[in-house]
Specification:
single chain; mainly alpha
Length: about 80
């Protein structure tokens, strides 16, 4: 039916097509989620800047300490 040379050529063509397909999938993923990834990175950078400013103002939040609320002592 097929000789060995044709089979090898087909295997090489299949391997090339698989590589192209994986590259196309990676490009699609970058196009689909690229903007979201950039937005998340920008938000994380802004969170770092805000945290640094809060630290400079000595207003850091420690979730393990309980601050008394001013509404508890309204009378």
């Amino acid at each position: 039916m097929f000789n060995e040379e044709e089979i090898k050529d087909m295997e090489e063509a299949i391997a090339t097509m698989e590589d192209d397909l994986s590259q196309a999938k990676a490009d699609l993923k970058k196009k689909k989620y690229g903007a979201l990834r950039e937005a998340i990175n920008a938000r994380n950078e802004m969170d770092k800047v805000v945290q640094e400013e809060l630290t400079k103002l000595n207003l850091t939040h420690n979730p393990w300490t309980v601050q008394p609320s001013r509404h508890l002592f309204w009378r």
